[in-house]
């Protein structure tokens, strides 16, 4: 911890800070587009941008290992999984028309209706109020705190590995059991035969049932490896 | 066995019989009749033994404390007091009760509820014995109220009919109306005289040395009179008695002619010194008696139902006894009570036979039947005797007892009786003479219309049960000959002479003769109409109980004749005799209508008001108390849309509010 | 670097996630919003870990765990969404209202879907 007097004010930012703020703005913008766009696949893709931005922020905070894990798991697998989910649930895809098209406005409104539920404005109010409150409190509490990012790297792979396998071994193993359980649960839940009250229906359609069951599989497996 | 033990057994035996009858009635139907008849018969024999042992000697007294009352000087005692009055009345009650029980075995032989009926009659008999024997006012009151409730049940014996239900309720409520002041009067009397014992009270009143005297004799006497008027059917509380004829005939004979209604008279006779202490009370009693006897005799002349004629006649005869008490001669009152009990029970039981034989209770229908006297010869002859006794024709019992009453009234009117207002004497004397005329008239009307004339043959009902006709002859004996005892009875009573005086005898018998002859002449005149206007509804059930015919006769009277009491019969001699009064007399001078307007309507209006207050005012608050939570609940239900996002939004908004509040509070305390 | 920058960024990302969770209709989009919220928390954890220079690196370890749990969550969540979509023909959250308060006796939730749903659960 450093005293408030020992670091420069907000009006004289360092280079890291400038980069952090710029990437942060980009990340935030990507996140906002993610939750507002009416095209579902676009939402997933914008999520990739937001998560990648966060990975960059981790790097700026000298947490290298977390950043690469973020890129690998989130960007690499979770988003792919979400895209599969969107396809499997036959998410409505709005036909794309150019901006000048006569039915552009109507289609856009229809797409927004399809993507957003009725309580959009209450949700906005709640979110804005929460943002205002939390920003006020956080800024009030930490405006004089300073992170010394130049002294040493905090989250290199070596450091993280040491800590993880010296001090956090037991939770780590417990987590692997959790992931196994999640794997099994996801397979059973998504089996085709599950909907037919235990009939041997999965035997009749082995390809589809197996394909769906396998989807969470590689993800979870990769988690364990990570 | 000592006499006291015998005396205790007298009320106890019918009571045990009643309990056994109620318990065994359903399980052992064979025991019901012996259980009904034998205890009463045995008790009557015991009563006879006691009467002959103690009738003329000093009163038998015995007492044991029953319960303390909180006032050490005022315990409730189980006390016996048997003097000549008690012994004689007891004998009457026993004999009539035996006759009625025997008669009922024939009259109600197939009735489904016979066992409970017989048990109630036994219970009633036991209660009457208790009233007669008891020397303690509270114990007497217990018997008095048991009689009231038995009367309620027995009048409502045919509860399938609306008339019986209404009549039983009316009898109960009207007598209770008198019983409330009666109870207050008893308590006031006991607290002023320092004892519940009747003999003690009368002794203390009679002796100037005892130090006790009544502070409010008039008030107490009037309070007691209210109960007496209710029980003994004196004006203005007599209206229940004619309606109570909706019960079975034996019940009418036992309760509403011979015993229960006599309890009020007997009570006044026992407590006569209390009433004699207040000239005002005697005057009120005399006026009540006068109004009752004249009014009831006029009403009896217009009734069509034979039992209602007898009921009004009962009211009139009770008023005679009340008149005797009003002139402070209890010997004459009890003399008339006993003789009237005998011949009126006979009249009712005979009427029961007649109703069965004729299949109707309507005099108008009977007057169109030929040969009813030949169909029921026992009823014809015994009822003739009883009607002659009722009309006070010498030498039948009614003549002597009624002359005793009129003689006492004359005595008082001439100022010879000590402490009795002369006006009371004259009132009783004049109204008594007028009633003698009317009594003979309605007795003659009843006799002529029931047994004579007519064109069509009476329906054949076969022979009457032997037990019923035998009982009639048993009762005919005292009706015929009881009056002869007028020379002996004063020794049993107070010692006042009961011998008929010449003037009143001649006057009253002459008036009775005039009444009878007038009625006969009118009847000869009107009877020709009978052939022209056919009238009548007959319920003929030769194979069934006599009671079945009676029920149907009671039920069908109103639809058949348009009225419960009268009938539109131009052949009725009463119509000619009474003239314009006939219509009002048939309705009992509209007293029921007056009560309806004065009491029933206001009570019903008050009930409606209470109902309104309850349903509309009170319930509004209750419903409001329910409605608030209901509305709140439906508002909360509305929030349960099933949309998880709404729930989550509300949850987050709420936690946000809490967080802001916590921050503000922390900032506030931090700033302070 | 000021701690306020990552903290404020985390807050804003979290609130964007809240908006998404509350406003999106498609269940998969809701899951995406949940991922955003989790990432906001992760960012917070990392920033504070770096700021505090914790020798155990609790924040970073926890971040790793959260990433793993989030992966499991998204797997299970997607499996559930698939199942719902297969049974009900829709993945719209505001149309899954079986647990709402019925407004009248006739307004019961459709029975066959309910049966199929529960049967699926039993088999699972």
UniProtKB/TrEMBL annotation, chain A:
The chain crosses the membrane at residues 18-36, 43-61, 67-89, 121-142, 168-189. It catalyses: a quinone + NADH + 5 H(+)(in) = a quinol + NAD(+) + 4 H(+)(out). Its main location: membrane. It is found in: Cell membrane. Pfam families: Oxidored_q3. Gene3D superfamilies: NADH-ubiquinone/plastoquinone oxidoreductase chain 6, subunit NuoJ. It is a multi-pass membrane protein. Its EC number is 7.1.1.-. This is NADH-quinone oxidoreductase subunit J. It comes from Streptomyces gossypii. The lineage of its organism: Bacteria, Bacillati, Actinomycetota, Actinomycetes, Kitasatosporales.
UniProtKB/TrEMBL annotation, chain B:
Residues 74-117 form the NADH-Ubiquinone oxidoreductase (complex I) chain 5 N-terminal domain. It is a multi-pass membrane protein. Its EC number is 1.6.5.-. Keywords: Membrane, Oxidoreductase, Transmembrane, Transmembrane helix. It is found in: Endomembrane system; Membrane. It is an enzyme of class 1 (oxidoreductase). Pfam families: Proton_antipo_M (PF00361), Proton_antipo_N (PF00662). GO terms for molecular function: oxidoreductase activity. Residues 134-409 form the NADH:quinone oxidoreductase/Mrp antiporter transmembrane domain. InterPro entries: NADHpl_OxRdtase_5_subgr (IPR018393), ND/Mrp_TM (IPR001750), NU5C-like (IPR003945), Proton_antipo_N (IPR001516). Its main location: membrane. NCBIfam families: NDH_I_L (TIGR01974). This is NADH-quinone oxidoreductase subunit L. It comes from Streptomyces gossypii.
TrEMBL record, chain C:
It is found in: Cell membrane; Membrane. The chain crosses the membrane at residues 6-22, 29-52, 64-85. Its EC number is 7.1.1.-. Residues 95-124 are annotated as: Disordered. Keywords: Cell membrane, Membrane, NAD, Oxidoreductase, Quinone, Translocase, Transmembrane, Transmembrane helix, Transport. It comes from the Bacteria. It holds the Pfam family Oxidored_q2. It catalyses: a quinone + NADH + 5 H(+)(in) = a quinol + NAD(+) + 4 H(+)(out). It is a multi-pass membrane protein. One of its GO terms (molecular function) is NADH dehydrogenase (quinone) (non-electrogenic) activity. Its main location: membrane. Belongs to the complex I subunit 4L family. PANTHER family: NADH-UBIQUINONE OXIDOREDUCTASE CHAIN 4L, NADH-UBIQUINONE OXIDOREDUCTASE SUBUNIT ND4L. NCBIfam families: PRK05715.1-2 (NF004320). NDH-1 shuttles electrons from NADH, via FMN and iron-sulfur (Fe-S) centers, to quinones in the respiratory chain. The immediate electron acceptor for the enzyme in this species is believed to be a menaquinone. Couples the redox reaction to proton translocation (for every two electrons transferred, four hydrogen ions are translocated across the cytoplasmic membrane), and thus conserves the redox energy in a proton gradient. NDH-1 is composed of 14 different subunits. Subunits NuoA, H, J, K, L, M, N constitute the membrane sector of the complex. HAMAP family: NDH1_NuoK (MF_01456). This is NADH-quinone oxidoreductase subunit K. It comes from Streptomyces gossypii. The gene is nuoK.
